[in-house]
Specification:
Order of helices and strands: HHHEHHHHHEHHHHHHHHHH
Radius of gyration: 20 Å
Number of helices: 18
Structural class: mainly alpha
Strand order of the largest sheet: 1-2
Distance between the termini: 61 Å
Oligomer: single chain
Helix content: over 70%
Shape: globular
Strand content: under 5%
C-alpha cells in the first residue's frame, strides 16, 4: 500500500491516541472523576490535572502562533473561533453532555479507555452515543430540532467589529500575551494545590494530555498539515475532515457510524476516528500488560437505563456543544474561544448538578 501524507497523518492520530489511552489508564486521568473527587471529597488533584492539560495546550498553541510552527486560526474542525457566537448552543449542549457523562460513568475519552480494559457497559455507551452523534451530524435531525433556535439566538460578532470569538481579540490583546498570561496563571493555580503537588500521576496525566492536544494541532496545522491539505485538494476522492484539528471524541463517534455504513470507502476514515482507535489500543495494551483486563457488565436494569440515557445525552449534547470535555474543554479552550470556555463550564455544571441529585436520591431512598 502506498504511504501517502494522508496515511502518515492518520498513523500519527493512532499514535497520539495510543499515548492518551495508555497514560490515562495509568494515571486515571478522567474529567468526570475530576469533578467527582472535587464535589464529593474536596480532592482537587484530578481537577488540577485537567487544568494543567488546558494550560499546556494553551501554551503550546501560543508558541505555535508566535513561532509560526503551526497555523491554528479560524479554519479548524470544529470551527472553535467562528464569529457566530451560538451561546445557547454551547450552554445547553454543555449541560446535556455534563448530565450524560455522569449517567454514563465517563466522558468520551473515558468510555474508550474502559472499552480497552474490557468494560461492556462502556461498549454500549459508545454504540448509543455514536448513533446519537450520527443523527446530529449526518441526518436532518439537527436541522429540524436545533438549527432554527440556534440560528435565532446566535450573535454575529462581526456586527460588533470582531472577526472571531477569540478571547484575545475580544480583550484587544495579542494572542501571545493572552495565551501566555492565561496559561501561566493556570500553571500557578494548579501547583498551588497541595493535593495536586502530592500526586505524580495527576501531574503526569495532565502534562501528557496537554502535550497530546498540542501534538494534534502540530500534525494537522504544521508542515505536515499543509501537505495533507494539498494532497486532499488534488485527491480523486477527497478524504473526510481534512482540516486543522486536535483531540475530540464525540463527532468522531458519529463519523465512525458513517464509515461503518460504507466500510469500503476508506476516504471516510479520518483523524478523529483513528485517534479513537489509538485510545482503545493504548488502554488495552496498558491493561493487558498490567493484567488489569476484566469484564464488567450492568448491575441492574436501572444501571442499564442510566447508561443508555446518558449515552444519548452525550451524543446529542456533545455535537450540540461542538465537543466533549476534551474536545471543547482542552482542545477548544486552547484556541481561547469563549464558546469553548462556556461549553466547558456548562459541562462541569451539568455533571456537578447531576451528582448532587443522584446522591440526594440515594440518601432519601435509604
Amino acid at each position: 500500500m502506498e504511504i501517502t501524507i494522508h496515511t502518515q497523518v492518520l498513523s500519527s492520530a493512532v499514535g497520539i491516541g495510543f499515548v492518551v489511552g495508555a497514560v490515562s489508564s495509568k494515571t486515571n486521568f478522567c474529567t468526570l472523576g475530576a469533578v467527582s473527587d472535587w464535589v464529593n471529597m474536596g480532592d482537587a488533584a484530578r481537577m488540577c490535572a485537567w487544568l494543567l492539560a488546558i494550560a499546556v495546550a494553551i501554551i503550546g498553541v501560543t508558541i505555535f502562533d508566535v513561532s509560526g510552527l503551526a497555523a491554528i486560526g479560524t479554519n479548524t474542525f470544529p470551527s472553535y473561533q467562528t464569529a457566530s457566537f451560538a451561546w445557547l448552543r454551547y450552554l445547553l449542549g454543555g449541560l446535556m453532555f455534563g448530565v450524560g457523562m455522569t449517567l454514563a460513568s465517563g466522558c468520551g475519552n473515558k468510555t474508550l479507555i474502559r472499552i480497552g480494559s474490557g468494560n461492556l457497559k462502556s461498549l454500549l455507551v459508545l454504540i448509543v452515543a455514536s448513533l446519537s452523534a450520527y443523527a446530529m451530524l449526518w441526518t436532518d435531525f439537527y436541522g429540524v430540532v436545533f438549527n432554527p433556535w440556534v440560528a435565532a439566538t446566535s450573535l454575529d460578532l462581526t456586527q460588533h467589529g470582531f472577526q472571531s470569538q477569540s478571547l484575545a481579540e475580544l480583550l484587544g490583546l495579542s494572542r501571545a500575551v493572552t495565551g501566555g498570561l492565561l496559561g501561566m496563571a493556570l500553571v500557578v493555580l494548579v501547583f498551588a494545590a497541595k493535593d495536586f503537588r502530592q500526586s505524580k500521576d495527576a501531574m503526569f496525566g495532565g502534562l501528557i494530555m496537554g502535550l497530546a492536544v498540542t501534538a494534534g494541532w502540530y500534525v494537522t496545522g504544521g508542515t505536515m498539515g499543509v501537505q495533507w491539505k494539498e494532497f486532499a485538494d488534488f485527491a480523486e476522492m477527497r478524504p473526510l475532515r481534512v482540516d486543522t484539528q486536535s483531540l475530540t471524541f464525540v463527532s468522531p463517534m458519529g463519523d465512525l457510524v458513517h464509515y461503518l455504513i460504507s466500510p469500503r470507502d476508506v476516504s471516510l476514515l479520518n483523524f478523529g476516528i483513528m485517534t479513537m482507535l489509538g485510545v482503545v489500543l493504548g488502554a488495552f495494551s496498558y491493561s493487558a500488560w498490567n493484567r488489569q483486563l476484566r469484564w464488567e457488565s450492568f448491575a441492574s436494569v436501572k444501571d442499564f437505563a442510566n447508561h443508555v440515557i446518558g449515552a444519548v445525552l452525550m451524543g446529542i449534547g456533545g455535537v450540540l456543544a461542538m465537543g466533549c470535555t476534551i474536545g471543547q474543554g482542552v482542545t477548544g479552550v486552547s484556541t481561547l474561544a469563549i464558546g469553548s470556555i462556556l461549553a466547558l463550564l456548562s459541562m462541569i455544571a451539568g455533571a456537578f448538578g447531576t451528582m448532587k441529585y443522584l446522591y440526594w436520591r440515594i440518601l432519601h431512598e435509604a
